[in-house]
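Subject: for your reference before the review

Hello V.,

The reviewers asked for a structural picture of the protein, and I figured it would be easier to keep everything in one thread rather than splitting it across files. Below is the amino acid sequence we used in the manuscript, unchanged from the supplementary table.
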Amino acid sequence: MTGIEITTLARRPELAARLWDMKDPWPPFAGHDSLAWLLYPRMVAEFPDHVLVATDGDAVIARAFSLPFALHAEGRGAGVLPARGWDQVLLWAFSDLRRGAAPDTVSAIEITVAADRQGEGLSGRMLAAMRDNARARGFAEVVAPVRPNGKHAEPDTPMEEYAYRTRADGLPHDPWLRVHVRAGAVIDSVAPLSMTIGGSLADWREWTGLPFDATGPVRVPGALAPVRCEAEHGYAVYVEPNVWVRHPLG
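And here is what came back from the structure prediction:
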């Protein structure tokens, strides 16, 4: 992997239009989070120092988004990581930017590796680059609302049970959590409603190819928990749990 270069978007602004060129492994419904639609373009425009891009020659092969925010600001739980996880960090970061509040923490938002470059250790390299980038900017901690990449195979298992499952060597059972812990992170807590995606029944049928014709839980490929279908009311809602980890940078 000697030809791979990882840099910030601030240094390579010409890559902004190519961040989504690569084929990624996200399930189709994941692209319909309202906050993502609203704020991803603003992350690119307003936080290019915290957007990392990996290239191999001319190809974009991985991306990583992070955001600085004031975790320890008054009214934010004295540094307790929020139950609303991913969604809450996005809201706090842009609120802080608008108000001119000084950030004290960096949160990972996304690390994605191109589907045809999985298994090469790129996710770990992007995580290391994110940590290094935050440290170079004077931050003492990176936090991450981790989306465990094996959890979709067990949608009915409570995240509180899954997150703390370990192997015989004491490392997390989940591969992505294991990458974080090996990099120096500790598992902090579960964010039970980290991301919320709602849509009409027609929307969910289009996104998943499933009928969504009966009220109750629907198991959707790629989802970490069942989607709740309310057939009589014409909508379904997915509430995704994530796992908060903390990376001290000292």
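For the response letter, the relevant points are probably these. The chain has a mean pLDDT of 96. The beta strands are 4-8, 51-56, 59-69, 105-113, 141-146, 186-200, 216-218, 227-230, 235-248.

Happy to draft the paragraph if you're swamped.

O.
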